Amino acid sequence: MNEKNMMCDLETGVCGETGDNAVQEFILNPIEKKVTIYYATDPICSHCWALEPVLNRFVEEYGHYFDLNIVMGGLLASWQGFSDGGNGIQKPSDVAQHWKEVGEHSRMPIDGSLWHTNPILSSYPPSRLFKVIQSKEGGKEHEFLRSARESVFAFNRNIAEEGVLVDIVNQLGMDGKQIVDEASLESAQDLLEEDFQMVARLGVRGFPSIVMVNEENKGVKIVGARSLETYVQALQQMVSEDLQPKELPTLEKALHAGQLRFSKEIEIMYNIERDAVQSFVESHLPDNTYRVHQILNEMYVQRI
Fold this sequence. Notes:
Number of domains: 2
CATH superfamily of the largest domain: Glutaredoxin
Number of helices: 12
Strand content: 5-15%
């Protein structure tokens, strides 16, 4: 007796014979290709701080198309032999005016007076710390970089000092002293040197630089803090289908306890005007869950 080949039809739910075609050809939809984005930066790069509002919006809307890989660029090894003639910077005190101009133009608050009173001698200590945190489970290196930038730019703290770094890492719920000690080891510098080599291979010569690379190793490079449209258009060149942005998270979902966002970031994220930010915050965050502050003529909101 011939056995019948049976199946249950997924659409009708009815079980019956499969028919004579035992082997059927088909074509799968192409597998979605991921893009890798290398973000070459440095903890004390003022233009990288200015980019935060646009970069955060870009990641929220289009992050499902790419893997973000932050690499440290080594902006300031030391002041010995350092010269940035393009910005008129030869010594620490020269940085203060440059930072002030970037802050006023971008409206991401920058104090900068520490360059007169307690200058940063190297950006390597926070960069090494970023690499050490990145090497551990938990994925808190992005939170560290954000906190370090808030500390140095808005709150005028020297993030090359051990005590400041310990405090920042403690705030992340990690053992600050232990991790800062680890970041002083030669192995941490080795991790940082690997980033420097990657930055060189990418042909990066300034920060911020965004390098997008697809699976065919074809890519585009965007130098400097640019508009959201610039990054979206560049990403579109890397993928075959039309980009479909994700829905933005609500302010309540995006802003976790202890975190803060400056007015400019909220304006860019939600396409609102500066004078509408206060009412937007009041209508999108529950009462008694946040505080509004002012710093350097800019508003910011912090979850409590």
